[in-house]
Design a protein that fits this description.
This protein has helices at residues 23-43, 61-80, 86-89, 103-127, 135-139; strands at residues 91-94, 99-102. The protein has five helices and two strands, in the order H-H-H-E-E-H-H. The chain is mostly helical. This is DinB superfamily protein.
Length: 143
């Protein structure tokens, strides 16, 4: 969220090219991912039936943070309450995507997904010459 807050709202539609996410779309993609991942993890691999906020316009960074907060918090709470043995014993099967993985592997992939998008986000910030985040502070940020 600290990184997201570096974007002035008038940059939300900026994208490096026509095929890339805009700043706003990338923020939405990451936090909707929290909702989708939690559903997938809880159900053992089923995709959510609804596409939340699909028709809600992206209007401000703070609004996106407000939308994102409960989904990130629910995902983190669910992970914190996992018995450690489930990281190995429980599987997440996604036949439509062509894989089945241990829960622990899936959690690592979620973290990887977020870090990839933070990298893209930082590159976007460089391209438009906006302030860069202090990643040490961002890592320790409390929700």
């Amino acid at each position: 969220m600290q990184t997201w807050r570096l974007i002035p709202d008038n940059y939300l539609d900026w994208r490096p090219d026509q095929e890339a996410y805009s700043f706003g779309e990338m923020i939405r993609h990451v936090w909707v991912g929290d909702y989708e991942y939690l559903h997938i993890l809880k159900t053992g691999g089923l995709d959510p039936e609804e596409d939340i906020y699909q028709n809600v316009p992206i209007t401000s960074v703070e609004q996106e943070i407000e939308y994102s907060h409960p989904h990130r918090q629910q995902l983190l709470d669910w992970i914190r309450n996992l018995p450690p043995e489930q990281l190995i014993e429980k599987s997440v099967a996604r036949p439509a995507k062509g894989y089945q993985r241990p829960l622990g592997d899936m959690l690592m992939r979620i973290a990887y997904h977020d870090s990839v998008h933070i990298g893209y986000f930082k590159q976007y910030l460089r391209m438009v010459q906006l302030e860069q985040p202090n990643m040490a502070l961002a890592y320790n940020e409390e929700w």
